[in-house]
Amino acid sequence: MSTQPTSTILDVRNLTTRFNTLDGIVHAVNGVSFTLDEGETLAVVGESGCGKSVTMLSILQMIPQPPGKITDGQALFFDGLATRDLLALSKSDIRHVRGREIGIIFQDPLTSLNPVLTIGLQISESLVEHMGLSENQAHKRTVELLDMVGMPDAQKRYNNYPHQFSGGMRQRVMIAIAIACLPKILIADEPTTALDVTVQAQIVDLVSKLRDELGVAVIWITHDLGVVAGIADRVMVMYGGQVVERALVDELYEHPQHPYTNGLLGALPKLYESESRRLVSIEGTPPDLYIEPKHCQFAYRCTFAFERCWEEIPQLFEVGKRHKVACFYDIENGRPRHVP
Amino acid sequence: MSQTSLPVDQVSGLLIDEEQTLRHRLTYFGRLLWRDKSGMLGLLLFFILIFSAIFAPWIAPHDPLEQNLRFNKKPPAWAAGGSWDYPLGTDNLGRDTLSRIIYGSRVSLTVGIFGVLIASGIGMLIGLISGYIGGRLDNAVTALINLILSLPYLLFVVVIAAILGRSLLNVILIFGITDSPIFARTTRGEVLRIRESGYVESAISIGASRRRIIFDHILPNLLGPLITVATFEMSAMIFYEAGLGFLGLSVPPSVPSWGNMLSNGRQYLTSAPWICTFPGLAIMFASLGMNLVGDWLRDVLDPRLRRVKK
After folding, report:
1. Contacts of A117 (CB under 8 A, 6+ apart)
2. What DSSP line would sit under B219-287, residue for residue?
3. What are the residues facing A74 on neighbouring strands?
4. Domain boundary among A232, A260, A281
5. What is the mean pLDDT of residues B264-289?
6. Are residues A64 and A115 in the same domain?
7. Final residue of a domain: which of A201, A232, A263?
8. Low-confidence ranges of chain A (pLDDT < 50)
């Protein structure tokens, strides 16, 4: 599915993001750590409000501050020459990372394009801003990019406005904008959620194709485990602003170690099943992020929770090759785990 | 995905992506205009106003200042005692009403255009900065805007006019400054909405500078609503200028303006009603035209409305 990863280009350590609201502090991201290798696809999975998007927006310093605040952590970005902590960059420095080194595709292509500007202008914008291309060069490059993302009649479509495109085509435009400067990392924030299923598949294929052609590393944020299986090399499962499990994709599907991951997989319909079964849902509701986490966030909903789960926060713990889980209970053997 | 994907504009039936020559564009806008009859009427009135303001010396039958007491208070041509020498009659000093209305359009149009330019320039800048930066600055600006808007507008204008004296420049400045809060408020509201939109977020995500976001992404989205406000304000200014003229606070009495004509004809309302009626009608049609143009422009400038409307 992909080449052997060569080196790490993003190393996020203990990222913590809070929002100070009138109702109290929202603990949106609580000590998230992960790495991303060159050219690989990392899927970030979790239900709504688990901190997937806030994690990624924090890395680019794109959360509104105030009320948001990144209280702790580092996001080390290696661009081949030097290592920079993205969280420590000044406003003007991070601006040259956005779009140039790290591109983002947002969830809703309907609102993410400016209705009064032609799509050609919107794509060439970052080329002019970051690559210093002249308008003519940018125009040429934009047409190439439109071709690359599978836009028919790219030359003619350059002067069209967003409302003249379907949802899928607009998402292609968004992808063209995100990859315009050939970034090292492409963050896809639930890019298929607003699209219908056939178009979803096209977009997934397109991003895989671009990843292979351009060698860009992809962080694919989603709540759809079905999409993950097709595209990802590794999966990171988040819950309540924390990473609860991280593994290679096949390993995760075959040996889920966290009760939450297990529950997610149980809630997935399967095509070839010998017996019909009811889909299993995970009882309960997502955790209240106003409360500072002092114990396992999943304990409220976990059928395996025991004393220790209510006393301390489990840390990520190596359970197999490139497989880490943050849980005190060994669900495969049905007993508590010996975790330091 | 090949033939059907060629975008054909549903309004004009033209291929949108055909090389957009000037002729194509004109045909396109011509068709847009043809569909909207009230917009056409508005533009027609607007062009008449502009035409008469520019070519006043050539189309006016008489010198607007020329007095001829022998022919004073002559009724319009179609009424008993009227003649085609003075199509809309004469005033108490025997000046030709039609010529004065034609020249008067110069004052109205100048006040309207420059007043709006000044007001929108100041207002847009303040609104953009205050809306985009937000925080305390925004609170202060909003408070100031509300303070100015809560003053009784006409009284405010009258006081300033009385202090500054009578001249065209003063009237323009007064309208330009006192009207700018309306533009600032509209701009600020729109900026607040647009600032939170997905496309501003995606512009931030590709590393666009603050200047680029404000001027390339936010400003073009403001033009639709602001042009609407501008035309309405322009018609209001023409109205208020006439009002000030009526009160004797606008341009000096020697200058033919619609307001001065109203004020002058007031005393003869019963004996020679045409002295007031025709400048009154001129004010009404100028205002109406501007409002219709505003509505039409708003539809045309928004690429989305352009297609969905009927």
Report:
1. A161, B216, B217, B220
2. HHHHHHHHHHHHHHHHHHHHHHHHHHHHTT-SS-TTS--HHHHHHHHGGGTTT-THHHHHHHHHHHHHH
3. A13
4. A232
5. 89
6. yes
7. A232
8. 1-5
Asked if B199 lies within 8 A of A111 by C-beta distance, the reply is: yes
> A182 at the B interface (CB within 8 A)?
no
Cβ of B207 within 8 Å of Cβ of A126? The answer is yes
Counting every residue, how long is chain A? 340
Can you spell out the DSSP letters for A75-114?
EEEE-SS-EEEGGGS-HHHHHHHBTTTEEEE-S-TTTSS-
CA torsion through residues A251, A252, A257, A262, sign: negative
Tell me the DSSP string of B53-101: HHSHHHH-SS-TT---GGGTTPPPTTSTT--TTSTT-B-TT--BHHHHH
Residue A1 lies in a domain: no
Would you say residue A3 lies in a domain?
Answer: no
Quick one: B37-308 is in which CATH superfamily?
Answer: MetI-like (1.10.3720.10)
> Which residue of A97, A113, A116 is in closest CB contact with B220?
A116
- Residues A204 and A272 grouped into a single domain: no
The answer on A48 and A173 residing in a single domain is yes
Helices (H) and strands (E) in chain B, counts: 13, 0
**Counted domains in chain A:** 2
Are A96 and B212 within 8 A, CB to CB?
A: no
Best probe of the A interface among B4, B201, B205, B308, by most A CBs < 10 A, is: B205
Does A221 lie at the interface with B, CB-CB under 8 angstroms? no
Q: Where in chain B is the domain with CATH 1.10.3720.10?
A: 37-308
pLDDT band at B285 (very low <50, low <70, confident <90, very high): very high
Q: Quote the minimal CA–CA distance from B223 to chain A in Å.
A: 10
DSSP type of residue A48: T
- Dump pLDDT digits (tens) for B92-137: 888 888 999 999 999 999 999 999 999 999 999 999 989 888 888 9
Instruction: State mean pLDDT over B5-33.
Output: 59
Cα dihedral A108, A114, A117, A122, rounded to 10, equals -70
Residue B143's pLDDT band (boundaries 50, 70, 90)?
Answer: very high
Nearest CA in chain A to B221: A116
ipTM score assigned to the predicted complex: 0.76
Residue B8 DSSP class: B
Does the pLDDT at position B221 exceed 90? no
CA distance A106 to B48: 50
Q: Which domain holds residue A154?
A: 8-232
User: What pLDDT does A322 receive?
Assistant: 84
Q: What is the pLDDT of residue B126?
A: 92
The answer to whether A139 and B242 have CB atoms below 8 angstroms apart is no
- List the single residue in B2, B203, B303 with the smallest CB-CB distance to A161: B303
Beta bridge partners of A44: A221, A236
Q: Which residues contact B216 (CB under 8 A, 6 or more apart)?
A: A117, A125, B203, B208
Say whether both A17 and A163 belong to one domain: yes
